[in-house]
From TrEMBL, chains A, B, C, D:
Protein name in the entry: Inositol 2-dehydrogenase
Organism: Bombilactobacillus thymidiniphilus
Swiss-Prot/TrEMBL keywords: Oxidoreductase
Broad class of enzyme this protein falls into: oxidoreductase
Family statement: Belongs to the Gfo/Idh/MocA family.
Domain (GFO/IDH/MocA-like oxidoreductase) ranges: 132-252
Keyword ATP-binding annotated: no
Biased composition (Basic and acidic residues): 251-260
Domain Gfo/Idh/MocA-like oxidoreductase N-terminal residues, every copy: 4-124
GO molecular function, one term: inositol 2-dehydrogenase (NAD+) activity
Gene: iolG
Length: 335, 335, 335, 335
């Protein structure tokens, strides 16, 4: 196997996690460069991970001849531009979601990718989670027959700060977008209509800045199936993410992982361990596996598991949900 | 404790089950009479259960001085009339759902009950199920904090015959009505708006007679919570009925009972036992417990766990869901 | 089906429970008589259950011509004598365990039963429990292949009184005897050697009267399998009774039933409901099912699920375990 | 934090795994050298992991001044000698189990370690497993009260080759030794007596070479608790390793992890995913965590979680079990 020489752009919390994972996947990747405009200890990081090239300027990294692929984990507003630059430089691209806030910007970036015939994989990490992946495999294999009902629950342990919420694009764009992607992934069909209800039940401040913290969205799919997603910004018991596909031959669903599998029994009943809270723990292996698959897609020249179009569709669904909530009525999704 | 002398009206499948349960609750009830217009072996049944009085005419049973209470399990179209007759005769009443198909008929029957100050308990057996009851107790005790999201899944093992479907009043009236009741029970609030989607995914014949077999309904509650119910007429794996209440302090949900608690592990993975299919097995204890509580309500002169108003509200929700499905938009529930 | 006319001897806690169950199994049984030497309200019980004949003298009941079968739930020291009398009177017999304290008395009673060609079923209720029964069915069907390891845990919620312990015959005879029976039932083989360890870890008073409250016994079976049983007189979390059979093709085990199937999640982890404490709740259905099967065995003239020999073997195992504990070494079981 | 400069001795399957883990723990370790007498691609490995020093001679590595600690994963017969050499060179030592086959050789090595005041951690990886570790924490915290019954099941997915079995030292030394260690760890007490039963039920060839493949051992502990361990060389359903501690206040036990948490329901019942088979997957995180704790013990100068004495005690228990099996009677453990 030939190693892919990769550069990492953006060294915030997610960027650093990807850097660590890439460094440990030493049979797949050689980290050749890192770029971040405002990371003070970039030189230290370069040393720690034995990276020969570092820069404050992402463009410099993108045009570096010794780099075959880039991982973009910089702030959202830079994604589309960096994708386009990397595509034009002929580099394969792994990009954190979302591609852009505006649907047209996403479409433009995808067109550039297409024109330059590079690969683009989006960081919808949950598709690589062992639980959701197994549901997908069951659906794909036909074991559950025709999907008829899709149910997804997705609840964060804590709401983000109000400052973050203000710039987040709203619950549908920031949070449920993962679930819209999951709904498409598990149903293997496109959503044709959404209806959204929701409110700020957790924190009225969230309502004051025009967002909601609790929502349910119903979905109609092209293949006839129907579904729903619920979201909460605050599940005190952990990072609760579950899904269920019900079909003509059976149903498959997944519960959360727990910190351990113990059962503790007392006079008060039975107790089991907590669901992990931080998503980095919840999806630690998924973050590694998405990088392994990105490698495989390039090596074998196969299509990626999460394409740019997947990012576009999820954004279109989020937009439709937002519109439905505002209008108080169902909305047909426009593609 | 004084035994209640009870008469059973209607001796179909459900009526016979109630008769058996009443006979076994010998510390609470003495079955004094049975009435059924078309049950050929009514004399045999009277002998089997040691019942001294039997008749083809329900009115005769209702006016019998030796009877304190009646259990109505006859065909739906007779319920309202029998409730009114029994109320006027001063008898306490246990009646299978629904009270009537028309909202106005229900209201009229409830008024007669009120005027005559008798007790009326409706046969929403699931409220007495050990699983749903425990969820209720958790919500009631404040353990989960303020309810924010209510989710209910309710799937039958097999669709009924097309002939039955034609006269059933439709999925919302015939099947989801139980879940509307459960939603009110678990949320401890009234539903203000519903939006219904659904289709005939299981059997196109069901669609041809104007009904659906698969549905999702979203709910907005007065207390601010939101919720959803899904229904399927055919879950090949059994009688799947689950509920979840998510709140500010935690969530409580229930899985189905199974025929046994075994875990069987092979090279193919782990296997556990089936969910029971027939509702009589699924809710066997609930059917007994609702009769025990009916007894207690009378003996202690306390309010019943499922009132006539509960029947009315569930019917109003079913009607609103039907309207929403037809209109393709959310509908405010009228009370 | 012809009803069996049955008489109940002994009206203590267990006797009353059987009486209630027999009365409710009205398609199988007609309770024709009850007998108890010291039950003050025997006349009331006769009235409650509509039993025409009652007496203080068990022998009177046994010779009553209108009675086809007897259920013996009187004190242990009367069992052998009553079995013999009933057998000589040609009555089929259901008898609570144990048959007698002395092995020779058991053997004598079984001989009389054999000579008189009546049926004798022993009240090892756990064989009828839905969980253990399902394990048995899996083993029987060959699904787990050749049994290799048998593990049984059996723990009571509370130790009995010291006064009871003094006359109980010791933990092996009083408590583990059920598990010896279960070991034979699930392994479908005879035990050839036992080794017992144990101590009074829960209450030193139990040690002072010469008994133990915590024990582990290893088992060698004729078919080559090995196994172990653990017992505790005090599991604060409920009536904990589990079993596992491990074989060449897989393993099957059972967990306890719980009061409900709820899962309650908080910041403190997940919680599930308690294991029921009183054995009457734990085995409520098993107590009913053993009477149904007793009926079927008689009606179809088939062998009973728990024979007198099963009672004898379990007693022999208890005796061997007692001997092993005293000697501090393994003991071959003598049959 | 100061990095520990470590050398790895032995580059077989386990040695390579440790090398990978050490390389990824880049905040704790710098791998300075590797040594293996017969690994053809040692130079390649050195390059892959960026290790500056490699040699065929372990002694050379041990005396290398740039190395602070060694990890010994070479063949068992070299362990004691390498421990002694490393101790004399003042290096901290992580050594795979067992230290030696002969009890006296273990004692000698431990004495040399003690004399030279270096740290020695033994590779009983299961102590670091998230499940067993949680049980330990529950026992340690007093949540289960006084431990009374300890139960451990440990079953491998496949027996090793007959050639391996011949030189393995037998089931107790090769396999149950992990469980003896777990019994001591979870009970927090020493074993005083063992009684072993077992046979070759899986493969008669194993019996022919003088070993067994299925065993149960009972344990008496100093603190009064009793316990048992079962072992099988072949659990067709995966690497089945479970433990339970039952005490005066409750019980805590752990089930196995599974490949995923899905529940798949069909007309045939419910299905869950497999237990992983290879121990490298089962204990992947435990292998990482034991290296993290080794680092912490050195950095903070604290005692290691698994000491040389722990290795000695487990070996003494294995020896006693072997003796018990041969003699057919219980054996007091000599320390």
């Amino acid at each position: 196997m030939v190693k892919i020489r990769i550069g990492v752009i953006g060294l915030g919390r997610i960027g650093k996690m990807h850097l660590e994972n890439l460094a440990n996947l030493r049979e797949c990747y050689e980290v050749k460069g890192i770029a971040a405009p405002r990371t003070p200890n970039i030189a230290e990081l370069a040393e720690k991970y034995d990276v020969s090239f570092y820069t404050r300027d992402a463009q410099e990294l993108i045009i570096n001849d010794e780099i075959d692929a880039v991982l973009i984990a910089s702030s959202t507003n830079t994604h589309a531009e960096l994708i386009e630059a990397a595509a034009k430089a002929g580099k394969n691209i792994f990009c954190e979601k979302p591609v852009a806030e505006e649907i047209n910007d996403i479409k433009h970036a995808l067109q550039v990718v297409k024109d330059n015939q590079v690969k683009l994989q989006i960081g919808f990490d949950r598709r690589f989670d062992h639980n959701f992946r197994t549901i997908y495999d069951y659906v794909q294999s036909g074991k559950i027959g025709d999907p008829q009902i899709i149910r997804i629950s997705s609840r964060d342990p804590e709401p983000p700060s109000i400052d973050y919420i203000k710039v987040s694009g709203g619950l549908f764009n920031d949070m449920m977008i993962h679930d819209f992607d999951m709904a498409r992934y598990l149903s293997q069909s496109e959503v044709t209509e959404v209806y959204a209800i929701g409110d700020s039940l957790i924190d009225p401040e969230i309502g004051k800045v025009g967002d909601i913290d609790t929502a349910i969205v119903t979905l109609k799919f092209e293949n006839g199936a129907i579904g729903e997603i619920d979201n909460s910004r605050k599940a005190v018991y952990g990072h609760d993410q579950r899904a269920e596909v019900f079909g003509s031959k059976g149903k498959v669903e997944t519960d959360n992982d727990r910190n351990s599998n113990i059962d503790f029994e007392t006079d008060d009943g039975g107790h089991h361990d907590k669901i992990p809270k931080p998503f980095q723990v919840r999806y630690a292996q998924a973050y590694i596996d998405e990088l392994k698959e990105f490698y495989n897609s390039i090596e074998k020249d196969e299509s990626v598991r999460v394409s740019g179009t997947d990012a576009l569709r999820a954004a279109q669904l989020a937009q439709a949900a937002q519109k439905s909530l505002a209008a108080g009525k169902p909305v047909k999704v426009e593609y």
